[in-house]
Amino acid sequence: MLLEIENLAVEVEGKQVLKDVNLSIAEGETHVLLGPNGAGKSTLFLTILGFPKYNITQGSIKFKGKDITNLPTSERVSMGMGVSFQNPPAIRGITVKDLLKYESGQSEDEDLNPRMRELANKLKFSEEFLNRDVNFGFSGGEVKRSEILQLLAQQPDFTMFDEPDSGVDIENVELLAEELNVILDKQKRIKQRKRSGLLITHLGYILNFVKADKAHVLMNGEIVCSGNPDEILLEIRKNGFTGCVNCAQCL
Amino acid sequence: MRNVYEDAERAKDKKAALGTDITIENFSSEDINAIDLIDDLSDLSKKDQNTLLSVGVDSNESDRAGSFLQMDQSNIFTSELSDNIELMNTGVALEKYSWLENYIWNAVKPDADKYTAEAAIKEKEDGTFSGYFVRSKPGTKEFFPVQACMFIADTDIMQTAHNIIIAEENSELHLITGCATGDDISSALHVGVSEIYLKPGSKITFTMVHNWAEQVEVRPRTAIKQAENSTYINNYILTSPVNSIQSYPTTYCEGANSKALFQSIISGQKTSNIDMGSRAVLSGYNCSAEAISRAVANDAAKIYARGHIIGDEPEVKGHVECNGLVLSEESSIYAVPILEANSTGLELSHEAAVGKIDEDEIHYLTSRGFTEDEAASMIVRGFLNMDITGLPPILADYTKNVIDMSVKGI
Ligand SMILES: Nc1ncnc2c1ncn2[C@@H]1O[C@H](COP(=O)(O)OP(=O)(O)OP(=O)(O)O)[C@@H](O)[C@H]1O
Ligand SMILES: [Mg+2]
């Protein structure tokens, strides 16, 4: 297993948000995490990433066979984790280009490499845009595209996307989805896929373009159902998330 | 100039309104000929040349319109490399141009406080003036900057300088002033009086980089007078420790459509006590001024970041922006924006934000692989590394480098 979460319970600011979460993702697999607002999806995401605010009170997280439960975020990232945020902060004085250079292993003084330039072009970013302070005054769609571009620079083995399609128009969702598929090795045959991912979404619109191998439904901090993404989505669309709790097909 | 000295005598014990009070008597005054002239800036020791470079003064003088170096009280080097400008010691200039009397102690008052008074009294005692005179000729637009350096080489001294800067009608003048100290200066006092005059349609950019020693007291006294359609841009960069500095350059936008922009980048180190302000008095029709500062307080530094805009005419515009980051428990920042509206129909605004580094920003960077420490220093560098606007490309690049260099050293 690439990622193994066992009996995980998490507190944020003294409040229990996740309980008894079990989740395993194998190499080459893409999983999707569904759930209503406030279910704890972002909390699980940030706990896997290792943000200090998320206090693990029980259970463990293993990545590439190593227990990372107490590892700082930067070390998880060097081990091959990558993320795109739902609402990343703007940082004055640090440009998109500064980050891209670091993420693609270049030094500060070098020019941005041709591969990254080409990718930036593909994601409709101009030179001027790359010189802007990251996320500062970006539109919703620009934020998401910049997150994806950074992941293309990083080339992580395991990538988590928190709502990559929220606030993005249809045309741009397709553009983003194309790159998500690259990040998740989807252009390769199933057996040859090495890279894995966890996609977080309320409604699963992005799933029309990015195929997942398995879906999980998180409600009130617990995974209440796991299974075939198409069947689970169909059930949610028919009976809502509560219908999902009582569903017999699951698990 | 008789009145000047009478006024100065009366103000000898007048404490400055701001900043810690310095006992001037603790510092010895230096002779104006104490140090020998040099033929070339590269005659200085490699070490001193590097110090000069850290404050923007290039000993090769490449891409420069001229250079001026004052070491302690002695003007040891002057060069004029462009026909568009005149550059010389203020005392020499006064002998050459009698009209210069009208510009001396005009924008800055000798009785402003005991530091200006002391500078004036010293001029009388010496019978001459230290500091530099620079003038851009009418209608010229010199692309390359003039570089001036005030260097303190001897310990426990008081260095004074009286600088007169004049941009004639429709001319453009760019200045880099670097102030620095030699190696083993345990204590010193610098009092620099600068009077800057912009004639109609002229533009001056004045970029000042400070790199003092830890025990130095610095009291610059600067005033600017702006005629119609003139533009004044003041950039100030301080990223090394100092004992105390207090400065409040003031521009008088008297002519219609004159504009002023102050940009300050301050990083307070160790026990530095820094009180830096920018003031604009807008009394001409359609004038505007902006005062922008970024301050970072480390260690036990105390920083006052002030901005003061006075609107005396309708239709004038002013904006003050003070942003600060407090990085240690013992350090502090006081952001003091002041707006004074003495007329109707004017637009004055301010924006001030002081706090610690935003944790979300740190976490965002750790999620890209930076450690928390790397993330924090990158954010601080980004915060200070503001785009200095209004400079010609060469000087903009150069200033960017100086900022990069000094910010990296933090
Ligand atoms: N820093 C925090 N302080 C207090 N409560 C928090 C904090 N972060 C999350 N929570 C709470 O934990 C619960 C789960 O929040 P989370 O952001 O993980 O939900 P989500 O599933 O991502 O929701 P959404 O679909 O709206 O993005 C919510 O009740 C939320 O208020
Ligand atoms: Mg969320």
**Outline of chain B, from the CA principal axes?**
globular
Please summarize the sheet with the most strands of chain B.
11 strands, mixed
**Strand order within the widest sheet of chain A?**
6-7-8-3-9-10
N-C termini distance of chain A: 19 Å
What does the oligomeric state look like here? heterodimer
What share of residues are in beta strands of chain B? Answer: 35-45%
Low-confidence stretches of chain A: none
Number of strands of chain A: 10
Mean pLDDT of chain B: 94
Low-confidence region ranges of chain B: none
In short:
By secondary structure, chain A is of the alpha/beta class. Chain A has helices at 41-49, 73-78, 96-103, 114-122, 127-130, 140-154, 170-183, 229-245; strands at 3-12, 15-25, 30-34, 54-63, 66-67, 81-84, 158-162, 196-200, 214-219, 222-227.
Describe the structure.
The complex is a heterodimer of chains A (251) and B (410). Chain A is α/β, with parallel strands linked by helices. Chain A is 33% helix and 25% strand. In chain A, strands 6-7-8-3-9-10 form a six-stranded mixed beta sheet, sandwiched between helices. In chain A, strands 2-1-4-5 form a four-stranded antiparallel beta sheet. In chain A, a hairpin with a 2-residue loop joins strand 4 and strand 5. The model of chain A has no long low-confidence stretch (mean pLDDT 93). Chain B is an alpha/beta fold and 410 residues long. Chain B contains seven helices and 21 strands. Chain B has helices spanning 2-10, 46-54, 90-96, 114-126, 359-366, 372-384, 393-408, and strands at 28-29, 66-71, 74-80, 85-89, 132-136, 146-152, 157-167, 172-181, 188-198, 203-211, 216-226, 231-238, 244-247, 250-253, 259-268, 273-282, 288-297, 302-311, 317-326, 332-341, 347-355. Chains A and B meet through helix 2 and helix 3 of A and helix 5 and helix 6 of B. Magnesium ion binds next to helix 1 of chain A. The site of magnesium ion (MG) has 4 residues of chain A, from helix 1.
